[in-house]
Amino acid sequence: MQILLALGGLSEAKRLVPITSAHVSGASYKMIGDSGLEFLEDFARDARVAVPTTVNPLGTDLAQWKELGIPPDFAEKQARIARAYATMGVRPSFSCTPYLIGVRPGLGEHVAWAESNAVCFANSVLGARTNREGGPSALAASIVGATPEDGLHTDEGRKPTIVVHVTTKPRGLDFSLIGLVAGERVGEGLPYFRGFRGTEEDQKWLGAALASSGSCGMYHLDGVTPEARRAPTRGLPSMTITRRDLVAAKRSYTDGNEADVIALGSPQLSEHEVREIAHRVERTPPRIPVWVFTSRTVRDANLEAVGIIERHGGRVLADTCLEVTLLEHRFGTVATPSGKGAYYLPSLCKQKVILDDIERLLERYA
Amino acid sequence: MKIRGRRIVPGHAAGDVLASPVPFSFVGGADPVAGKILDPSTGVADERLAGRIFAFPHGKGSTVGSYVIYGLAKREVGPAGIVNASAEGIVAVGAILAGIPMVDRIDTAGLRTGDRIVLDGARGTVELPDVRATPVVTAVLRNRGRILIVRRSEKVGSFRGRWSAISGHLEGREDPKARAVQEVREETGLRRLAFRAAGAPILARHDETVYVVHPFLFDVASRRVRLDWENVEHRWVRPGEELDRLQTVPRLKDVVASVLR
Fold first, then answer.
1. What is the value of ipTM here, to two decimals?
2. Which one of A24, A151, A183, A187 has the fewest CB atoms closer than 10 angstroms to its CB?
């Protein structure tokens, strides 16, 4: 409670607003280390969540860590973090895509979510209301069941600050590229996109990239997202993204030559995406491993697709995701179609990156 | 010298200042077990946090920083208190979890490593018993995007020949804004002022004196200035680079930036 009041005080929020769900980050041992483990174990002694709460991916798949060559000490500490969250009553989702596993707050519903891609999706695609929480603040909110009413919780905070015209028709990787380019230029702003449409899946990649290269917690997409129609755009500054910008972004985020692995995640793949990958891998068998990151829920429900991918030398990993897992002990260069992955892999996993469409990657490494 | 900031975490702390001029990330920036500073850009690498009042502009980096602060305090190697210019969630949450008294809205650039300091978290104040404070007001006058700077004469008591905004000493319990208006009238003859902003005090350090500068911004309708004996020359300049090229009083650029934001 003290945390929420202090945070509310910093932003000069007038009151706390009740939330219907929380999503906490800070679960990978690789990311939070001994300091995080220690805090969570101490905190779990008496803290219990007051609202349904999900948690971000861990640093490894809890069922496959041995095969992955994860050091036993790492796996043991990772399991302790998972236990601490379970003790607090957090659902062991270990997913960065709560919105793909049944947590879908409705229009105008207040929630407290950490994990930037999930925040962007909840605000933009679902019309729910959350700020970009950090791990500790989302955890505090889950225990109190409320969060300071400021920023993206208010009508004022959801108004666009810049209009982004996209002059090319995007498909596949393009959604990640638009996100990367817009995020770099928009920074902390709130973009209103015009000129294209996209499915929920497309928008997942758009939002994840946008929230990585920028500090955006929300966007509007003209004619698509639920609050776009009422968003005031008159008099706003504007920018244009062309095909040339997307080509340049793809080039600038690529610094590798030969990939050791094709990695698909960041955010975790949906059921539909896992099946599609299985289909593609069967059609064009790759000569380097394909690692797929998804939630435990999706993996368990799609064992046939998992079997196909693994028979072709790949792995389908649950509980974890691309840049919070240990890759650095096995690989040096990762090929991925994820804009968010391309943004974080160099710093968080010391990887060189090849950013490209999945079709093209599978052709290249057939 | 006593300065008022804002309460973040209640509690008392006293000790020596450990000051970083740059924003700080506790993840990677501090050794979580030994409680030593690691980040060389702070200028205080290898210094221990224990028993010190750690002053830096604001936190940055991963939110895991909150947990690092908690762990430092648990091992009794964390700072005794924290002073920020502007608190953000990472450090504030960490200080709450750790029970470390914390105050913000203090211009940390005016604090030096080794200053003795007493922090009162509940009141949101810090006191530096060895430092003499000279309270002053500075009025930034703006007209169509340019601001007025004046060159101080040889007859004034300090910073002779340097460029400054309109400023003057604050006496006793006088209202800073009223004093600023008065100084503008005396030094420029300008009478039609529209108050626009007041900034948090800037601490301009000069030897053992700290000028506690209360910055104000006024829009003025005219550029016709009539100087008195305190200044010998005036210019209307664009805020920014132009100030870099001139010999100014300490921290004039920060004072200007604090009200133009």
1. 0.77
2. A187
